[in-house]
Amino acid sequence: MLFLTNLKYQLFFISVLFFNSTINAQNGINAKIFYKHDKYLSSDKLEGRFPGTKGNNEAAAYIKKYYKKYGLKKFDNNFYQPFTLFVKEGINKMKSDSVSTQNVVGYLVGSDEKLKNEYIVIGAHYDHWGWGGQNSGSKKKEAFAIHNGADDNASGVSALLCILQELSNAKVKPKRSIIFISFSGEEEGLLGSKYFVSHLPVQKDAVRVMLNMDMVGRLNEEKQIYMGGAGTFPNGVELMKKLDEISTLNPVIHAGEVGGSDHVSFYKAGISAVGFHTGGHPQYHTPEDDIDLINIQGGALVAQYIYNALVAIANDPQQLYFINQD
């Protein structure tokens, strides 16, 4: 019985590799499109996308535009999930205050009559530190300057939108439904993802896996993509290793070590969660995290790898359930 199960799983992987290889040959995520998204989201115009500001709202509107363009459906007739957060005095040149912001959420209906009632979530936060300042997470609190966050996390949102576009072009949609979400309030303590997990638009037990992208724009010369939490769902580590066979990346795969970004909110709620990133750098949380340092080709390769993982998980015929890695 175990042999037959493993054989079935291996055959599934072979079909996934063939399916995704065909997609890569025909289309593939475009580095120019990745660059276009990152350039806009990390522009001075948006002033660091701090929650409650015009720049944060304009970033949300930009994401919403592409959700609509590529055919995502709304929950409760709205792509926005509004919530409030408290801002400490001195951050972004503000006095202490509660501000309104929003997650941007939409979904793609799965193609399988049964599995479409299960959901895979893929997300990335779009907020950053604005102008920095006292009590902020800036590494240069003494200098009021725009923290554009080209890597943290315009890169993750760029990957999210590229993946969405690629899915919209696919002739065969994934079997499970997919929720796309861009979180606000991540920098203040994963507030957007915590709010989403506490106010899910679907039943919690229908959410099977969450994939999160935070800082995926600085692929190094070794082409290493790091991930934590691959062991939080069945055969997750094996899947990520198999996907390496159709990628030029060198994945560094951890079954546990879930990390510290928005996927942690899901993991703590008992939902399988994987976080992807390309590593830290000296420009992290400084005004120097700009578009000219982004590895555009690398960002597209990372987005393609995660796209392949998303499709494979969404099409996986086996039961997906949470595996605690603590």
TrEMBL record:
Which keywords annotate this record?
Signal
Q: Is Cytoplasm given among the entry's keywords?
A: no
InterPro entries, sorted: M28_fam, Peptidase_M28
Q: Which Gene3D superfamilies match?
A: Zn peptidases
Output the Gene Ontology terms for molecular function: metalloexopeptidase activity
Q: Name one GO biological process term.
A: proteolysis
Residue ranges of domain Peptidase M28 in the record = 103-298
Give the signal peptide, or none.
1-25
State the source organism's domain of life: Bacteria
Pfam families for the chain: Peptidase_M28
Among PANTHER family, the record links this protein to: METALLOPEPTIDASE M28 FAMILY MEMBER, PEPTIDASE M28 DOMAIN-CONTAINING PROTEIN
Q: What is this protein called?
A: Peptidase M28
* Species of provenance: Flavobacterium hydrophilum
